[in-house]
Amino acid sequence: MEKMLKDKLLETKLMMSHARRNEIRKHLDYYSGVSTEQYINNYFNGDAFSEIPPTVTNFTRKFVNKISRIYVLGAKRTVGDSTERYEELIPTKDVRMKHSERMTRLLGTVANRVYWVDGVFDYRPIYYFEAYFDENPFKPSSIVYPLLNSTADLSNTSELQWEYWDEEKYGVMDGEGKLLSEIPNPYGIIPFVFTHREDQIDSFFVEGASDIINCNEQVNIALTEMNLGMRYNMFGQPWVNGLRADQSMLRAGSNTILDMGEDGVYNITSPQGNIMEAIENIRFQIELVALNNHLFVQFAESGGEVPSGISLMIKDLDRKEDYYDDIALWRLYEKEFYDVERIIAEYNGISLPEEFGVDFDEVQYPKTIQDQILKDEFDIKNNLITRAKIMVRDNKDLTVEQAQSIIDENKIVNQQENPVVVNEIKNNN
């Protein structure tokens, strides 16, 4: 067994220390906006950055967060007759799941560890890991990942410790594959849920937001090139021909005459580059990757109207289809999380029912005031909502009971002060 673990560990270190680890690191750097200039240094010679610093911008985080909207409004989970008890066990779940969705969008595949801490569940996404399989190539039977990552280079194994899980054992190893500790797995399952950006096709691992990362890198190169060009060529370059050897060059100006003798020439070479074309090219690249991800990008310009809710909905039709596909996928992941939670809870003396359901609140589009008034009137007329719930919707600090009390008080005051108006409202309703 120990030899097998060593062999697996060596394989894991080789794989993680090269292409996949580097790709994950790059994606995380662009998402966090940290040290992204390192990825464009190779596109410029050594003297370039002595003239200007690299120019970097970061729209990766914004794009990834906008695409990830399943948990923007949280989720409502029901577990038979134990929903209230279950909610007490998952105080951090909505926050953790929102982060997990974003990381899954960014990296493609994430291993989510389910923990039992101080009587409640907690969750941690793991980015660098290697999975191993038995019969099913899409369902890992074991996982190895760095437990303590105190070095940036995984080939330097002296400071690394690794965590290993399968259905029978849990162990911690050093960088040489030596078991530091090993205990029986108390759960009988690996306490992980693997989330993927989309359904797998021919591999367990799914590609992440490489198109956004590559576009962000290309834009950083273009911005740096543009600033270098402006540094050298923003202003015309004066030059003379025919200046006598014994004549010093005077600074040109409206009150200065240059004497260059016979056949002398003075000229200014103007830059040929078009900055606006460069800017338009950058905008085109950003808009193209946004379009491919069904995002609507509006650059800041003077004038123009603010898009209405209806126009935004029309622009967002393709993205809405993706949203429903994502709901179906993350509903499956929620069930997988619950299955793991049930087993961990049972081990800790808590029984949860098999029944599980989850609903995701859909993101609403902004309406004009008149549109909202008409909808509220329609909903009240058809008993789809109450005035108290409308009031709570606009003031989250109120309960329905508090809102109803305020409405009743206002009704009495309005009846006293404006009896005619109140009666007209009653008659119209």
How does this model look, in words?
This protein has 429 residues and is of the alpha+beta class. The chain has two domains: 1-234 and 270-366, no CATH class; 368-429, no CATH class. The chain contains 14 helices and twelve strands. The strands form four sheets. The protein has a five-stranded antiparallel beta sheet, with helices on one face. The protein has a three-stranded antiparallel beta sheet with strand order 3-2-9, covered by helices on one side. Strands 1-12 form a two-stranded antiparallel ribbon. Helix 7 packs antiparallel against helix 8, helix 12 (387-394) packs across helix 13 (400-417) and helix 13 crosses helix 14 (419-428). The longest helix has 31 residues, at 317-347. The N and C termini lie far apart (77 Å).
Distance between the termini: 77 Å
Name the helicity range.
40-55%
Question: How many domains in all?
Answer: 2
The largest beta-sheet arranges its strands as 4-5-6-7-8
List the main descriptive attributes of the protein structure presented here.
flat; 5-stranded antiparallel sheet; 3-stranded antiparallel sheet; 429 residues; alpha+beta
